[in-house]
Structure formats: C-alpha cells, structure tokens
Amino acid sequence: MNKSAVKKRGYIPQKDRKWIGFSLVLTVVILAYGLWSLIHLYNSTTNWNDHHISEAYKVYGSQARILLFVVLAYYVILFVIKRKWLDAWAGIRKLAVKLLGIARRVHVPVAMVAMGLIALHVVGAFLFDFKLDFNHITGLLAGIALLPVPIAGFFRYKKLDRQWHLRSGLAFAVLFLIHAFL
Question: Which pTM was predicted?
Fold first, then answer.
C-alpha cells in the first residue's frame, strides 16, 4: 500500500476506533449526568456556598486529576525509555516497554474522559464558587491551555501537528500541576 492510500483512510487508526468510540460515549454519559446533577443542585439550594455544592464539583476535578496522571504517564515512560536510563536493567526496561504500550493504548480514551470531567469541574466552579484568587486563575489558565490539546492531538494522527500537541499539552500539564497542588 502506498503512502497516499494510507493517508486517505481516516484520521483515527482502525485499532483505536472502538476504544475512542467507547470513551466518547462514556464521556457523553458522564457529562449528561454531571450537568444534570450540577443544575439540580444549583436549582434546589438556597445557600450556594453550601459544603455539598462545593464538594460536588471538586470531586469531578479530583477524578480528572487521577485520570490525567494516567495520560501523562505515557510521556514520562517514553522520556525515560528514550533517555536509555533503563538499559542497564533489562528486566525493568522490558516492563517499562510493556507499560509504554499500555499507556499509549489508553492515552486518548482516558484523556477524553478526563476532559469531560474537567468540563464539569469548570462548569461547577463558574456556577457556585468562582473568585479571582490564585487557585481559580491558575485553573482558568489551565483550562485555556487545554483547549488546543485535543485539536492538535486529532492532527497528531496524521502527523500534521508539528509538535503542537506535545507543547500545548506540556503547558497544560504545568498549569494543571500548579492548580492542583498549590
């Protein structure tokens, strides 16, 4: 098969389509239920500073944080393998290569679900508790930095992104870590 025939097949490789489709459906279900529950909380309470309301959207952020560590693990393992830091230990290197394969396979589906949870976290923050403080501003900057990541990732399948997926993802990762831990 020549290169032009390969490029015309589609943006998403065949082996990834079922997992991406599954994660897309799961993300839509999570978004629908999450938005319904946030709006229900918003309409049913008179005290918007209630502890239950702030916990509702913070839980989405915490769940997204865990999933984002899985997404970022792909780049960490790839970095370690490319630096050849594990060449002296053959057993550990084989394990790292297997983990890299798993991390590569779940990178996009887990990232899609994490972005849905981040969207719920942002909606909850704006509905209930947005203030101009350090934590909310870093979260807003991280959200803005996240916007080009999936678009560049979509073009990454065609090798048309010129490393924008990695660069914007790194900017998001730094802002996300500042937002989550400072």
Answer: 0.84
Measured CA to CA in angstroms, residue 150 lies from 108, 113, 163, 172 at distances of 9, 12, 13, 11
Sequence-distant (6+) residues with CB within 8 A of 41 are: 52, 53, 56
pLDDT in tens, 97-148: 899 999 999 999 999 999 999 999 988 888 777 788 898 899 999 999 999 9
- Report the b/e string of 107-120 with b at 16+ CB within 10 A: bbbbbbbbbbbbbb
Pair 128, 57: CB distance under 8 Å: yes
As a whole number of angstroms, the distance between CA 40 and CA 105 comes to 36
- Judge contact between 20 and 112, C-beta under 8 A: yes
* Length reported for the chain: 182
CA–CA distance, 2 with 59 (Å, rounded to integer): 49
| Non-local CB neighbours of 89 within 8 Å, separated by 6+ positions | none
What is the largest distance, in Å, between two alpha-carbon atoms of the chain? Answer: 64
- Summarize pLDDT for 52-69 with one digit per residue, the tens: 777 888 899 999 999 999
